[in-house]
Design a protein that fits this description.
Elements lengths: L1 H28 L9 H11 L11 H17 L17 H21 L3 H32 L4 H10 L6 H18 L18 H4 L5 H26 L8 H24 L9 H22 L2
Helix pairs in contact: 1-9, 1-10, 2-9, 3-4, 3-9, 4-5, 5-6, 5-7, 5-11, 7-9, 7-11, 9-10
Length: 306
């Protein structure tokens, strides 16, 4: 149990580090002077010292929504597959529960964007709802498909089963699911080509539009929630689609798991520097590909057994 709690705490603490690493790596690849990978922690400390200003048009939702955005994501962290062998884990939580909790966090974020009664907030919330409506079914299908291949619908148990007995006979279905989930990782975390987290251009922003009116401690909480969401998706990808390292002793297994998280982050950075942002109405085409690959994974598993 102690190892279980320590793992969750460490993942929570390194969440800002992963996003800072992506930003620094992108700057290096673009031949710019890289920002420090500790910048995420500096930004958090700076925001805590700033004044929290609330719009006169906002209701009490603005005061509670930041905490309600973060809370479901923290709960999801307790349901992630184990990092090392012998660690406690929750084995019975399925794809519907995890997707539902992540969607609940997104709902409160959209509510926060709407509550300020600004044009940008409403626009960002509308766009976020548009994207989430396509992401959620694809995520349920993808995780459900992987769980079937692992022989258990519980996500935690599926991660353990895949690490112990990798289904080589279902490699085609596994690869289809991996492609689908990686697209969803990019879309749900507002990364390029779906959204640009580094812009405030009103024609393109989605996530940033919802939090333009948020300041101080509330903004620090929202930024923390964004980094926690990324580490959740990266951890799920590392546990379900890179299922190795669980058999080693706890320190070694944990280092391997952190290495996998940085591999996922590197892949995200490489995609972002090699492409441009899609137009909003082109995003369904990308998410449609994720849904197609999720269905292909299920069909290949059931029909061909491959």
């Amino acid at each position: 149990m102690i190892l279980y709690l320590v793992t969750i705490l460490v993942l929570f603490l390194i969440a800002p580090l992963l996003l800072s690493y992506i930003k620094s790596l992108k700057m290096v690849l673009l031949f710019k002077r890289p920002a420090s990978i500790m910048q995420g922690y500096r930004n958090f400390a700076k925001l805590l010292q700033k004044e929290t200003i609330i719009s006169s048009e906002a209701s009490s939702i603005t005061r509670y929504a930041p905490f309600l955005v973060l809370a479901p994501l923290v709960v999801v962290m307790f349901y992630l597959p184990p990092v090392c062998k012998g660690s406690y884990y929750v084995s019975f939580v399925d794809a519907f529960t995890i997707t539902g909790l992540i969607s609940l966090s997104t709902f409160f974020l959209m509510l926060l964007g709407l509550d300020g009664a600004s044009a940008f907030g409403g626009m960002g919330s509308s766009r976020e709802a548009f994207i989430s409506a396509l992401v959620e079914p694809a995520m349920v299908l993808t995780v459900f498909s992987v769980s079937l291949m692992a022989g258990n619908l519980g996500v935690g148990q599926a991660g353990v089963n895949l690490a112990e007995h990798f289904p080589k006979e279902h490699m085609a279905s596994f690869l289809f699911a991996a492609i689908s989930f990686f697209i969803l990782l990019i879309a749900e975390n507002g990364r390029l080509p779906v959204d640009n987290p580094e812009t405030h251009l009103e024609l393109t922003m989605v996530h940033e539009a919802m939090i333009l009116d948020v300041t101080g401690v509330f903004l620090a909480i929202i930024e923390t929630a964004a980094s926690v969401k990324f580490v959740i998706f990266a951890s799920l990808f590392a546990s379900l689609f890179l299922p190795f390292g669980l058999e080693y002793a706890a320190p070694v297994a944990f280092v391997i798991f952190l290495f996998k998280l940085f591999v996922v982050s590197t892949a995200v950075a490489l995609i972002e520097v090699s492409g441009a942002k899609l137009r909003l109405f082109k995003v369904p085409n990308l998410l449609g590909i994720a849904i197609v690959f999720a269905f292909l994974s299920l069909i290949t598993f059931y029909v061909l057994g491959a």
